[in-house]
Design goal:
The protein is of the alpha/beta class. Helices cover 39% and strands 17% of the residues. It has a 7-stranded parallel β-sheet. Keywords: Oxidoreductase.
Length: 307
């Protein structure tokens, strides 16, 4: 792989896993689905796309062992076995594949979190996970924990802290949480928070503010809305104001939606996923887009934060 150490970091940097990391990263979900549908050539194309992302300055890759039954982690291992120390591998615990009507099931108990960490370590071929995000299941959208899967947050965090002390996990993140849960988790020492948040939906602004206070990375998922069958969320790119701002700036609505996130909060890190080189270029170029103050004010007014 070509040396791209001088490639400007897309979107600037923020600290993750103890080092400055480009604020535009990459989420593995879409790519994994495309690779799975494409067979051997799909896997080859997916590995090539990941290497192109690296060439563009992307260093933060968000994955999960349950993405594609381990395919996501296999793709990362194939793409970056020689660059392991140069990338940040962030994965998830709290869910597991299922053969039932839903592709996933809850795996919230502490021993299941440990098993998820061990499975990710083995699949990625690494001795440590840079970030493990605990995915809670207390409210919609997504699965709701029931029965013995209803586990106190502090019990889960204690297991992740133990894994951190063992050196298997570098930093702990937390996902799909309430403000009260974030307040309870902060003393553990968090690297990041992953919640649904986008230009047209800012109900979690209080969580973002708390992250800002504690220098915790804010990593929104569905940063452009949407969500498909998982969640019925308005698409940022369909909004007329977003489209007008994009036209005025010679950018795309996608780039405006991503650039708004970056400018709105310097602690924000993005993980847009794609199976397309063209969209990859579009996403990383969003880190260079500067939205003027008057346009930011128009965008901010689309969905004032709660409270």
């Amino acid at each position: 792989m070509t040396d791209h150490s001088q490639t400007p970091p897309p979107g600037g940097t923020f600290t993750l896993a103890g080092r400055p990391v480009p604020r535009i990263g990459y989420g593995m979900g879409q790519l994994t689905r495309r690779a799975a549908a494409g067979g051997a050539s799909g896997v080859e194309d997916a590995v090539a796309l990941l290497r192109r992302a690296y060439d563009l300055g992307v260093r933060h890759f968000d994955t999960a062992q349950f993405y594609g039954g381990g395919l996501a982690n296999s793709l990362l291992r194939q793409a970056f076995s020689a660059q392991r120390d140069e990338i940040v591998l962030a994965t998830k615990a709290g869910a597991a594949p299922s053969d039932g009507p839903m592709p996933l099931t809850a795996a919230q108990r502490p021993h299941e979190l440990r098993a998820a960490v061990e499975d990710n370590l083995a699949a990625l071929g690494t001795d440590r996970l840079d970030v493990v995000n605990l995915r809670r299941m207390d409210f919609l959208p997504g699965l709701i924990a029931e029965g013995d899967q209803v586990v106190p947050l502090q019990d889960q965090l204690a297991e992740l802290v133990a894994l951190r002390e063992e050196g298997k996990v570098v930093e702990i993140g937390i996902s799909h949480i309430t403000l009260e849960q974030l307040e309870a988790a902060v003393p553990v020492g968090l690297a990041c928070v992953q919640n649904i948040y986008h230009l047209l939906g800012r109900a979690d602004e209080p969580l973002l503010d708390l992250c800002r206070t504690h220098d915790i990375a804010w990593i929104p998922y569905f940063p452009l809305g949407g969500g498909g069958a998982y969640a019925d969320i308005p698409k940022v790119t369909d909004d007329p104001v977003v489209q007008e701002v994009a036209q005025a700036l010679g950018a795309t609505p996608t780039q405006v939606g991503l650039a708004w996130q970056l400018q709105h909060a310097p602690i924000t890190m993005l993980i847009p996923g794609t199976g397309s080189i063209d969209h990859l270029l579009e996403n990383t170029a969003a880190g260079e887009l500067v939205i003027p103050a008057d346009a930011m004010a128009r965008l901010d007014a689309l969905a004032p934060p709660a409270g």
